[in-house]
Amino acid sequence: MSAPTDESEAQSLERLPQALSTREAWLDPFDWYTKMREDDPVRYDDDRDCWDLFRYEDVDRVLDDPETFSSDPRLASGLDMPPPEEQSPIMETMLLTDGDRHDRLRGVVEDRFRPRAIAERADRFESFAYPFPVIVIAELLGVPAEDRPQFRRWSETLIESPAPTDRSSAEAVRERQQQAGEELSEYFEGKLSARQGDQRDDLISVISRAERDGDLTHEEALGFCMLLLVAGNITTTNLITNAMRCLTETPAALERMESGEASTVSVIEEVLRYRSPVQALARIATESVEIRGRAIDDGDVVVPWLGAANRDPEVFDSPGQFRVDRAPNPHFGFGRGTHYCLGAPLARLEARIALEGLFERVTDIRRVGGQLQPVRSAFIYGVESFPIEFTTASA
Ligand code: HEM
Questions:
Q1: From the CB of 231, is ligand 1 less than 6 Å away?
Q2: Is the CB of 223 under 6 A from ligand 1?
Q3: For the chain, how long is the longest CA-to-CA vector?
Q4: Neighbouring-strand partners of residue 305
Q5: % of residues, the chain, pLDDT over 70
Q6: Strand 301-304 relative to strand 50-53, pairing
Q7: What is the mean pLDDT of residues 329-342?
């Protein structure tokens, strides 16, 4: 889910595979995944210079072995990295580091994201899809709600991918991302220094305290704020819209949801599997390694396709069916292993509040026609908007 904030990572990750480069294909990439799982499960893409993995077992192996498959893009061979002083603070975050440093960084805020800590704040969360996740993270971080529109713009820019064949668009996207990264960094620079003398009960205070105590460098503190803002924003918004998409296209599921028969918790897990908001991750091989007889070199970029593994028939019965009561459901929607999503309890809670809130108030939900537009990203999956109609429930 690493936002491509610099050229290195952008080279292979900012673009979708050719087969998914049309609007229709990226709206529903699942037939292509099936073909790849069967015909070419460990595939080298010359165009993007990376390996693509599609089977559950292979994705699991890679995510479970961070020593051999690192999250640090600086280890990729053949990528021109900007000098360290020009790299975005996002490079200094847990998402893109391994080992002890990863654990030290994650440890700074881990307690604040545990299910119980999140549940204690639940009563302060309300509303629906966007701007809901932005409001929640702004509240947790401790930044003013008025700055929300900017957060949304920054987040969207940082996950954006250019059109697959368009070099000028790639250049423009990179420039926009650089600009957004600088603005975001400046924004948090101000907030962090303001908190030094004004500690409160929010995440920026936790982070600024860790910096003051020498547990975080200044760059790490800045990167931390940026990551927390960006990581949970577009992803959770897409979880909620993807849920509406899954439900409206599966009438039996919608009916069970509307009648209160289906558990919202398991519906959300099935959305995370069936239309995963994060479809692909990236890792760098730190040594030569073989997967299914294919020789992956030290420094090669490896892309585990979560969305493809989540429909692997070896693990899921009838994987192409959206089943509201699927159990067990060991999907990779939040990743796996040491980098398992820190915000998973928060995202689950937000989605539950949004869906329960909606289904309490309305019935007879249906999709309004019109062409869907996929989110312009090569790893975040969802649609730009998903208009619905409904009848307001009588009291
Ligand atoms: C539905 C919503 C979300 C989805 C689908 C999602 C998905 C993911 C995935 C797949 C990873 C693993 C990345 C990797 O292994 O490289 C991840 C990591 C992460 N997520 Fe989420 N995420 C969501 C919401 C959130 C929220 C709300 C936050 C918190 C503000 C958050 C913060 C993070 C952080 C900090 C990491 C990095 C953890 C680490 O490197 O140890 N995410 N997320």
A1: yes
A2: no
A3: 63
A4: 280
A5: 92
A6: parallel
A7: 98
